[in-house]
Amino acid sequence: MSDVVTLERQGDIAVVTVNNPPVNALGIAVREGLQNCFKAAEADPEVKAIVLVCEGMTFMAGADIKEFGKPPKSPSLPEVVAGIEAGNKPSVAVIHGTALGGGLEVAVSCHYRIARKDAKVGLPEVKLGLLPGAGGTQRLPRLVGVPKALDMIVSGNPIGAPEAFELGVVDKLIEGDLLSEGIAFAQQLLMDGKGARRTGERTDKLEGVDNAGAVAAKRAEIEKKMPGLFSPQRCVSAVEASFTLPLEEGLKRERELFGECLTSPQRGALVHAFFSERQASKVDDLPKDTPVREIKSAGVIGGGTMGVGIAICFANAGIPVKILEISSEARDKAIDRARDTYGMSVKRGSLTQDALEKRMGLISGVTDYADLGDVDVVVEAVFEEMGVKQKVFEALDANCKPGAILASNTSSLDLNKIAEFTKRPEDVVGLHFFSPANVMRLLEVVRGEKTSNEVLATAMAIGKKLKKVSVPVGVCDGFVGNRMVFQYGRESEFLLEEGATPAQVDGVLKKFGMAMGPFAMRDLSGLDIGLAIRTRQRQTLPAEYKLPTILDKMAEAGMLGQKTGKGFYVYEPGSRTPQENPDLPPILEAASKEQGVERQQLSDEYIIERTIYALINEGAKILEEGIAQRASDIDVIYLNGYGFPAHQGGPMFYADAVGVDRVYAKICEFHDKLGAWWKPAPLLEKLAKEGRKFADL
Predict the structure, then answer these.
(1) Cα of 674 vs its chain's centroid, Å
(2) What pLDDT score was predicted for residue 1?
(3) Which of 53, 170, 341, 516 has the fewest Cβ atoms within 10 angstroms?
(4) Residues pairing with 443 in the sheet
(5) Residues 328-358, buried b or exposed e (16+ Cβ, 10 A)?
(6) What is the mean pLDDT of the chain?
(7) Pairing of strands 13-18, 5-10
(8) Which residues contact 289 (CB under 8 A, 6 or more apart)?
(9) What would the pLDDT profile of 217-229 be if each residue is shown by its tens digit?
(10) Confidence (pTM)
(11) What are phi and psi of 633, to 5 degrees?
């Protein structure tokens, strides 16, 4: 037998145990072991039932990522699960931790399933551009019905064990010892005279339901919410086969569709995104034995939307947090804001009232910096103006205990200058949250020139504790994300001067896959924020770096976005649905005339090149300057903080996919035509001329 899968007999129960840390991934050794152990148990006349259990923290959590991109080895997972299901002796899967992807496919090939109450099950393959390829699309609908199977497989989101029990994925919820519970359940099956119950032979959940209607509705939903994505529609086609074809033909159809996904370019992008996220948290020059400070309490300066969102992040992680405001009235409003935010989660059913009260018990409000004297970390989230930051950090320096981490949430200001406001610059770091902070996963961890290794390591650990995707970045105007998005936004506005409309630009970029178009995003955040940054930058920009004037003209007209009901679009009271702004065309025409630009029709391809290539060129400069460690880190930032489509892999991956030489040639063309902003990054030029990719760095 395999070293990672063992077989032993306890009475008339065969126990198959998987022990392949850390997550019992279904690599070749595990697949061979499962196949051999189940065959041996079937062949043993003393064995009446089989229990499958896993050691460690989890059941089988899916495929072995070490095998990604490598030729498949036999036995394949479809072969393994087919053999398990075909067995004549009742088999019981005992689930704890997570049973994801192939792990769940193994579990549903067993004849019965029991699960610890805190376990989760799911089929997340769609998130890697694939579909469940070992019978998941055929067996899950037979357990939960087609509508719920479509929801689970197309979203890729797991469900908790209690819901899995209600749906029929598992037969019993347990709390005790896994092996004891599994053996007891198997013995009860034998006492009750119950034998093998093959999931693939069940049809009760497929009958008497409008399955075709559910498929049509899911296809329409995908077309609306995930336009251009390849694998979700294939997932639907595979599930459709579960009720239109016999099992064997359905499994064959699943494998065909799996093969189509496997060769899709989108799969490469999604796998890149997966691995890049795992890599992003690794700081190349940070020694592995760097000490990490203990974080038992936190403070947040500022009780606005951002500050409260940050405080909620700490409370969600079980860390007591104090919000400091300038008055008792502002303090109380901040606490109310936190409660209201949690209250919305309760209304949605994603949080219980008890959990709300427990988390609110961790959030308190103060008005005196002295009350922050005992906290381990403070995050400043006040107005983005250096004078305001100076007052805050001088007060923190005077009141916080030695060793406390002083963090700034600044999105663009010079962290090194902020650190100079204290006598302990080594304890100053940037923690750039993205709004809404309690929802957005990205956290840029900004390393100042004097930030100590210990503080950086602790900041990365804080991000992990808060369940953020933490990416270390260096100091420059806007760090990585906002520095690049400035180029993207500027070019979008120049396109308006050249003849495009906001709806056209937003439409093209949404079709490309962006979560929001740049102008809908501007309206959401407020035009005054972008204009303030623009005004500050104008003071230092050389004359050849011209900026659009559209924001200035709109601000003069009182068009600041959703907050005023009118921006690039107009909004009805109480609505966030953008509608055409009839007052905008004269402003655009005036801007075009002022710049001496003749308005013309612009193609979709041109709009994508002007916006996305601007991101790529700036990203190359950021890499060369060492502001980001690796090209994939930039992709992670854009995928998690700026709505860049995962199936495009991120701006730097997209450059590689298009061809760095092709991107460089077009940027040279733009440089000749449009001027200084489009000077090609030296790194981009180097890669293009050497025939290399960003992935080669």
Answers:
(1) 35
(2) 52
(3) 516
(4) 433, 470
(5) eebbebbbebbeebbeebeeeeebeeeebee
(6) 95
(7) antiparallel
(8) none
(9) 999 999 988 888 9
(10) 0.90
(11) -65, -40
| pLDDT tens sequence across 379-399 | 999 998 999 999 999 999 999
User: What confidence score (pLDDT) does residue 529 get?
Assistant: 79
d(CA 593, CA 571): 28
In 291-365, alpha helices (H): 305-316, 328-348, 353-360
Domains and CATH numbers, the chain: 5-262 (3.90.226.10), 298-475 (3.40.50.720), 482-696 (1.10.1040.50)
Phi, psi of 41 (to 5 degrees): -65, -40
Q: What gap in Å lies between CA 573 and CA 589, rounded to an integer?
A: 28
Cα 317 off chain centre by:
18
DSSP-assigned beta bridge partners for residue 93: 52, 113
Taking a C-beta distance cutoff of 8 angstroms, is the pair 479, 408 a contact? no
Distances (CA, A) of 299 to 214, 265, 361, 412, 431: 48, 45, 15, 21, 13
Q: DSSP string covering 124-168, please?
A: -GGGGT---TTTHHHHHHHHH-HHHHHHHHHH---EEHHHHHHHT
Catalytic residue among 32, 105, 491, 493: 105
As beta bridge partners, residue 591 has none
pLDDT in tens, 305-329: 999 999 999 999 999 999 999 999 9
Handedness of CA 589, 592, 598, 602 (dihedral sign): negative
What residue ranges of the chain have pLDDT lower than 70? 1-2
* Torsion 464-468-471-475 (CA) sign: negative
Q: Is 240 an active-site residue?
A: no
CA distance 622 to 482: 12
Which secondary-structure segment (H or E) carries 432? strand 428-433
DSSP 385-396: -HHHHHHHHHHH
**Spatial contact of 238 and 178, defined as CB atoms under 8 Å apart:** no
What number of helices (H) and strands (E) belong to the chain?
28, 19
- What would the DSSP string read from start to end of 532-593? HHHHHHHTTS-TTS----HHHHHHHTT--BGGGTBSSEE--TT----EE-TTHHHHHHHHHH
> Is 444 a residue of the active site?
no
Cβ(9)–Cβ(46) below 8 Å: yes
| Contact between residue 463 and residue 445 where contact means Cβ atoms under 8 Å apart | yes
Is residue 136 classed exposed, middle or buried when 0-12, 13-18 and 19+ CB atoms within 10 A define those classes? buried
Phi, psi dihedrals of residue 102, rounded to the nearest 5°:
-60, -30
Token pair 């394949």: residue = 76
Q: Is 656 exposed, middle or buried (0-12, 13-18, 19+ CB in 10 A)?
A: buried
pLDDT of residue 254: 98
Tokens of residue 518, six digits = 């740049």
Catalytic annotation, pick one of 32, 85, 125, 609: 125
How many C-beta atoms surround the C-beta of residue 194 within 10 A? 14
CA atoms within 13 A on the CB side of 175: 0
Select from 352, 334, 333, 331 the least CA-distant residue to 342: 352
The order of strands in the sheet holding 377-380 is: 363-366, 321-324, 298-301, 377-380, 405-408, 428-433, 442-446, 469-473
Q: Residue-wise over 225-260: b if at least 16 C-beta within 10 A, else e?
A: ebeebbbbbbbbbbbbbbbeeebeebbebbbebbeb
Structure tokens at 132: 């469940």
